[in-house]
């Protein structure tokens, strides 16, 4: 089953307007059947995923333009402290990639095969599924019968992007999940979570309308979720006030003034919480500390394991409660 020009334009109108849809269509139609993305539901979910991951085929390479705070928030394990992260960020994207993706700075379970000084930048994220790391590039090139020293920018071409996306899709069991109709489980398999689920669902609805002839959804593309900022001493705002309220509910010694100002008392409470949770104690509230606080605020309820193609989807009440906490607290 091939996708028509009209179908792809209906799924990704912005890609059609910029000419990207027509540029990618031959490569998508060449690669999807090769990886058994050949049934309506598989094609619909595959194209919906690509639409969200690439902003309708507009973005192919990883954006490494981080502030020091955001860099430390995402990759704290590779830095001594926030000052070091700021120093690396000031050197620009290439220096950032070579720092955060170097195997020498990553724990054994998260190494990417980057052992040369410039491997981080050379093998940064590319393609719709953001293939990252020399080992993963080599694995992909070997699987498709290409020389290991192939230019990584091959993944920035329509042919390479479509091939790498389809290979990832098939290798990670996404066809089978698509057959089950569980779009939430599919999102977790691709994304590792449920980031931008509403946007993904919007594109899936469009794909079903274009290919399966269901009614086309109305309205604009839902906005992508804003990434919460790093909270540290000196920051102020409603998110700090919510943090203080959460610490008061989850700490063994509540009593923080919920004034929205991250002062020494709030920093001390964060450090106490981090120590109790077995986290790196630095007094900064980034993704790991934030996730631990959210989990602590939902007593006696642990997040379910990542579903496989045969797993039962997570109870909706848990995810609704977790989502509400994330929106309200951070």
From TrEMBL:
Superkingdom classification of source: Bacteria
Record field: transmembrane: none
Residues covered by the Peptidoglycan binding-like domain: 236-293
SUPFAM superfamilies on file: Lysozyme-like (SSF53955), PGBD-like (SSF47090)
InterPro entries noted in UniProt: Cell_Wall_Dynamics_Protein, Lysozyme-like_dom_sf, Peptidoglycan-bd-like, PGBD-like_sf, PGBDSf
Name listed for the protein in its UniProt record: Peptidoglycan binding-like domain-containing protein
Provenance organism: Vineibacter terrae
